[in-house]
Specification:
Blueprint (H helix, E strand, L loop, with lengths): L2 E7 L4 E7 H10 L7 H8 L26 E6 L4 E6 L7 E7 L4 E9 L5 E3 L5 H13 L6 H5 L2 H18 L4 H6 L20 H16 L10 H6 L2 H18 L11 H5 L4 H26 L9 H20 L11 H9 L5 E2 L11 H9 L4 E2 L19 H28 L29 H19 L6 H18 L4 H25 L4 H12 L21
Parallel strand pairs: 1-3, 4-7
Antiparallel strand pairs: 1-2, 3-4, 5-6, 8-9
Helix pairs in contact: 1-2, 5-7, 5-11, 5-12, 7-11, 11-12, 16-17, 16-19, 17-18, 18-19
Length: 566
C-alpha cells in the first residue's frame, strides 16, 4: 500500500488525484517555500524533484475528492495552512527529509526541509473542512503586510529627515559651525559607520545610535502596531534554517537548488533573514549620517533660521531616496564585490551565498587557506553575522530584552572569571609564553600542534604543518616582508599537499623525499636569513622529516572520541 489520495486547495482552486506516497511527502516538503497558490507549490516542488516536460499535477482533476485511496488520504489547504494526513505510508511533520527524485527514480540524496510554525498538521482527514474554513477566515482577516514598503520607503526616509533635523538643530543651535566642521563627504569607514578614527564626535555617534534605536523600537500604525525590530526578527530563524537546508542540499547534489521566483508570495511578503537584517542596519546608519551632514551644511547658512522641518523634508527625502538606491546598488569589496541589493535578493529567493574554495581565501599566503581551496570539492558558503553592529538591545538578534539581558550577564560573568584568573596568575608569578601555551619551551607563538603526533593520518599531519607554517609566514612579513621566501615556502607546501593527497602510492613514495628535502632547504635559507626564526625553522624541518613515517603504536597524542588533535 503506497498510493494515496492527494487533495490540494488554494484560495481560488482545488485539485485532487492519486499519487505515490513519496510524492505526497515531497509536496509537503515543498511547503517550506511558503507557497500560497497551487502554481507556487508546483514551482517549489522543483526543490525536491527534477521538473519534467509534463506538470506533475497534470492528471489531477479540478475537484475535492477526499475519499481515501490505497494507503490513505492527504489534504493540503494552502489558504488555511492546514495539512490533514491519514496515511499508512507516512505521517506529516513540520521538519524532516525526503529522497530527491531525479526524474527517473528516487535517489539516495536526502533533502531536508522544515515548515513554518503557522502550518497546522492534523491526523483527522474526516474532519478537516471545519478547521480549514476557520483558519481561512482568520487568515483572510489578517492580509499580508508589505513591511518593506515601510522599512525602506517614505516612512523611513521621512523619519530620518525629521529626527535628524529636529535633534541636530536643537543640539547645535548655539554653535552651528561645530556641526558643519565635523561633516566630511568622504567615507569614514565600512558602510559609512562611525569609528574611533573618524572625525565624528562621541555626542554625534550617541545621537545617531539613539535615533536609529528609536526607529527600530517604537511601534508604528503602518506596521499594525508592531515595531520595525519585531518585523525584522519575526521570521529570521525560520529563513536561516531553510537556507541551511538548501546549503546542505547544494553540497550533496553538487548544484544550487532552485530559488523562489520574485513574483511568489513568500518573496514579496516573506520575512527578513539575517543577511537582510545586517545590511538594513548599515543602510539606516549610512542614511542617518548622510542626513546629519545635510543638517550641518544647512545650519551653516544664515537662511536656516527661517527653515521649518517641513521645508527640510521637501528636498531631503528625495535626496535620501537617491542615496538609499545608490548605496544598495554599489558593489562592496567587503561583500566580495557583491551589492547589498543582490545579497538581499538572493536571501529572499532562499538561495545560499555559495563560493568556491579559491574565492573564499582570505590570505593567499596562508597555508591553511591554501588547503581549504584545493582540499574541498564542494561549495563553501558565505555569511554575515553582524559582528560590527552596536551591542545595544535594539540592534541585537535576541527576540526579547530578557534574552538580551541574560546574554549580557553571561558575557559579564565570563569576563569577570577571565580577569580573576589573570590576576591570580600575576599574584602567583606564573609566566607563560606570549600566546599562553603552558610549555615554556614551546617555540610557536600563534599556533599549537600536539607533540608526538606522527602517527596521525596524513591529512591531520598536513594540517599541523600548515598551522606552524602560517605562524612562520607571519614572522616573514615583519618587520619587512620577505616575498621571495614566502612564495617559495608556499610552493613547497603546495608540493607537499599534492604528494600527501596522491592516490598513487608508488608516485607518492618516489616524490616524498625530494619534496621534503626541498622544503627543508627553504627553511634552512629562512633560518640563515633570520636568526630570530631559526628555532622555528629547525623544529618544522624535524616534523617534515617524520611526515611520511607509518603510524606506530598508540602514543600520547592519539585521540579519543572527545579529543581535539590541534
Amino acid at each position: 500500500m503506497s498510493e494515496v489520495r492527494l487533495v490540494l486547495l488554494d484560495a481560488e482552486s482545488d485539485l485532487s488525484g492519486t499519487c505515490h506516497g513519496s510524492t505526497a511527502d515531497r509536496i509537503i516538503a515543498a511547503l517550506s517555500a511558503e507557497p500560497e497558490t497551487i502554481g507556487e507549490l508546483e514551482a517549489a516542488f522543483a526543490r525536491f524533484e527534477r521538473p519534467s516536460n509534463q506538470r506533475f499535477l497534470a492528471w489531477f482533476r479540478p475537484e475535492i475528492n477526499d475519499e481515501p485511496y490505497d494507503a490513505g488520504v492527504v489534504v493540503i489547504d494552502l489558504a488555511a495552512r492546514l495539512i490533514a494526513c491519514d496515511s499508512t505510508y507516512s505521517s506529516a511533520s513540520h521538519r524532516g527529509s525526503v529522497d530527491y527524485q531525479n526524474g527517473d527514480c528516487a535517489t539516495k540524496v536526502r533533502v531536508h526541509y522544515r515548515l513554518p510554525d503557522d502550518w497546522r498538521i492534523i491526523g483527522d482527514a474526516w474532519n478537516w473542512r471545519p478547521q480549514a474554513e476557520s483558519r481561512r477566515r482568520e487568515r483572510l482577516a489578517n492580509p499580508p503586510l508589505d513591511a518593506r514598503a515601510v522599512l525602506y520607503g517614505q516612512p523611513l526616509l521621512e523619519y530620518i529627515a525629521r529626527e535628524c533635523f529636529c535633534t541636530f538643530q536643537d543640539s547645535q543651535a548655539d554653535n552651528p559651525l561645530a556641526l558643519a566642521n565635523n561633516s566630511l563627504t568622504e567615507d569614514r569607514d565600512w558602510h559609512g559607520l562611525d569609528d574611533e578614527g573618524s572625525v565624528r564626535t562621541e555626542p554625534d555617534r550617541s545621537t545617531i545610535r539613539d535615533i536609529h534605536a528609536r526607529w527600530l523600537l517604537d511601534p508604528r500604525a503602518d506596521l499594525l502596531g508592531q515595531a520595525p525590530r519585531e518585523i525584522l526578527l519575526s521570521r529570521m530563524t525560520f529563513i536561516e534554517k531553510d537556507l541551511q537546508d538548501r546549503e546542505l542540499q547544494w553540497t550533496t547534489q553538487g548544484h544550487c537548488p532552485p530559488g523562489l521566483d520574485p513574483i511568489m508570495h513568500a518573496y514579496r511578503y516573506g520575512g527578513f533573514g539575517r543577511h537582510e537584517i545586517v545590511i538594513y542596519y548599515y543602510l539606516v546608519r549610512s542614511l542617518l549620517w548622510s542626513c546629519r551632514d545635510s543638517v550641518a551644511m544647512l545650519l551653516a547658512k544664515p537662511e536656516s533660521k527661517m527653515m521649518t522641518v517641513g521645508d527640510f523634508l521637501t528636498t531631503e527625502v528625495d535626496r535620501l531616496e537617491k542615496s538609499r538606491d545608490e548605496w544598495l546598488n554599489t558593489p562592496d569589496p567587503e561583500y566580495h564585490g557583491r551589492t547589498p541589493h543582490s545579497i538581499i535578493d538572493r536571501e529572499r529567493q532562499r538561495l545560499p551565498e555559495g563560493m568556491s574554495g579559491e574565492d573564499a581565501i582570505i590570505d593567499h599566503d596562508c597555508p591553511l587557506c591554501q588547503m581549504m581551496a584545493d582540499g574541498l570539492s564542494g561549495p563553501m558558503f558565505w555569511h554575515l553575522d553582524g559582528c560590527n553592529m552596536d551591542w545595544e538591545f535594539a540592534f541585537s538578534f535576541e527576540a526579547t530584552r530578557e534574552e538580551w539581558e541574560a546574554g549580557q550577564r553571561t558575557w559579564e560573568d565570563f569576563n569577570k572569571k577571565f580577569e580573576a584568573e589573570q590576576a591570580e596568575r600575576e599574584t602567583l608569578g606564573v609566566k607563560y609564553p606570549s600566546s599562553g601555551y603552558s610549555d615554556p619551551n614551546y617555540v610557536w607563538e600563534r599556533s599549537f600542534v600536539a607533540g608526538q603526533c606522527d602517527g596521525m593520518p596524513l591529512e591531520l599531519r598536513l594540517f599541523g604543518i600548515g598551522s606552524n607554517l602560517a605562524d612562520l609566514i607571519v614572522d616573514l612579513k615583519h618587520p619587512t616582508e620577505n616575498r621571495l621566501m614566502i612564495d617559495q615556502l608556499s610552493r613547497d607546501f603546495g608540493n607537499l599537499r599534492e604528494v600527501a593527497r596522491s592516490k598513487d602510492l608508488a608516485t607518492s613514495a618516489a616524490l616524498a623525499e625530494p619534496v621534503i628535502n626541498r622544503f627543508c632547504d627553504t627553511l634552512a635559507e629562512a633560518a640563515a636569513a633570520r636568526e630570530d626564526i631559526r628555532e622555528k625553522c629547525d623544529e618544522l624541518s624535524q616534523r617534515l622529516h617524520r611526515f611520511f613515517e607509518p603510524p606506530g603504536e598508540r602514543n600520547e597524542c592519539e585521540l579519543g572520541d572527545d579529543d581535539i588533535p590541534f
